[in-house]
Structure prediction request, 233 residues.
Amino acid sequence: MVASQNGWIAGATDRLNTMATAEATLVRFPGGVRSDAPGQLLMVVAGRFHREVEPLIDGQCWGYAYRPIRGATSISNHASGTAIDCNAPRHPLGTEPGATFSGSQIDAIHRILAAAGGVVRWGGTYTGRKDPMHFEIVDGATLADCQSALDTMRSRPSVPPPPSSTMQKGSTGDTVARLQRVLNDWYPDQPQLVEDGIYGPATEAMVRYLQAAAGLVVDGIAGPKTLAVLRLT
Prediction:
């Protein structure tokens, strides 16, 4: 039997959950992940990534794919359903993590990895070519290891407070920058916002555009209903 780089059997599509979604989100990972503890653990990690690092984007998150590692001959961990990519186009293979993640986002990723007890590895920590989109079950982890990490993460979720219930012109901070990132991703055809954490006229205008499209009251204030549309609550 062919194994992926981390030792799990590759190509076993009968063991896949091909409808995999990150926990507590509606974002799918096409191709899926393993249906047992390793895949479930990755979906918990993805859910925390969504809440604590940056919102996951439909169409930019990937799961199972039978292929070699890019630029190598070893079978990718994607081929065993034990790896995922989060917001892949935003964090390309070969990119230094600090080029696309802020320091606080990188810290949040490390907190998530710590909660997983070393069973999940992030491509941003590779010693060679970095892969900041990528999370995988580590080489040598057993089914029991994955189940233990999964039980721990589910029993002790560490979720930061959601973004401020109301953001409006004059608001500043990381939550505003997160709002700006999501608006840019939702509306690439609109003038892109500077993701500077400052809720100025351009951000207000983009919020008004969203509100009109969603049938909400068009007031330019990112309150609970507006944030719910963007899955930021």
